[in-house]
Amino acid sequence: MKRAPLIAGLALLPFGWAFSGWGMTGHMIAHMIAVAVAAPFLALGLQGSRFDPAERWPLLTTPLVAALIEAVIVWGWHVPSLRRLADHAPLWLAAEQISFLAAGLLLWAAVLTPRHRAAGIAALLVTSMHMTLLGALIGLAPRPLYSHHGAGALDDQQMAGVVMLLVGGVAYLCGGLAMLGRLLQMPKEAHT
């Protein structure tokens, strides 16, 4: 276990969750910190330990399976009826936040596993694309999708879409590009 990234990931979680009561934008900040910022630190911190998801659940932590699980969870919780449920029921909010963190941790643990280098890059780039698409759909919608947020819902929703575009899209894209750079610098025999 690597203590510094683990502590960083654990410290980021309550920081992110503190924003979740600040409308749709705050909620999106909490989501993005959990899946795209804290989760990679946690995955790095747990890597190689008995708590490493890639070691505990190898079938779920292949990069493309983990990316699919994360996509289903992220898109599912942005369905307006589920979003409303999480906003108005503390147990649903907790379930949502835990599922975001679990999906993010699963994905980052999978892609950071040395045996999945190329597939990990593909999974992060695909995740970057779907995060960007969902952020654009939320941010560019001509009417509030989450009208239960009341007055100013459209402005709040548009800012939330921008947060998702910037944090979600950029974090996964940068992760994928960093992994690609490392893969290209490796000796040819190490690629297998």
Summarize the helices and strands and which ones pair or pack.
Blueprint: H1 3-17, H2 23-46, H3 53-56, H4 63-77, H5 80-88, H6 90-111, H7 117-140, H8 153-185
Helix pairs in contact: 1-2, 2-6, 2-8, 4-6, 4-7, 5-6, 7-8
Structure overview:
The chain is an all-alpha fold and 192 residues long. The protein has one domain (3-191). It is 76% helix and 0% strand. The protein has helices spanning 3-17, 23-46, 53-56, 63-77, 80-88, 90-111, 117-140, 153-185. The radius of gyration is 17 Å and the shape is globular. The mean pLDDT is 88.
Observed structural traits:
192 residues, globular, mainly alpha
The largest β sheet comes out as: none
Uncertain residue ranges: none
Spatial shape: globular
Find the count of extended strands (DSSP E, 2+ residues). Answer: 0
Mean pLDDT: 88
Based on helices, strands and strand pairing, what is the structural class? mainly alpha
Strand content: under 5%
Tell me the number of helical segments per DSSP (H or I, 4 or more residues long).
Answer: 8
Q: How many domains make up the coordinates?
A: 1
**Helicity range:** over 70%
Q: How would you spell out the order of helices and strands? A: HHHHHHHH
End-to-end separation in angstroms reads 25 Å
Rg for CA atoms: 17 Å
Q: What is the subunit arrangement here?
A: single chain
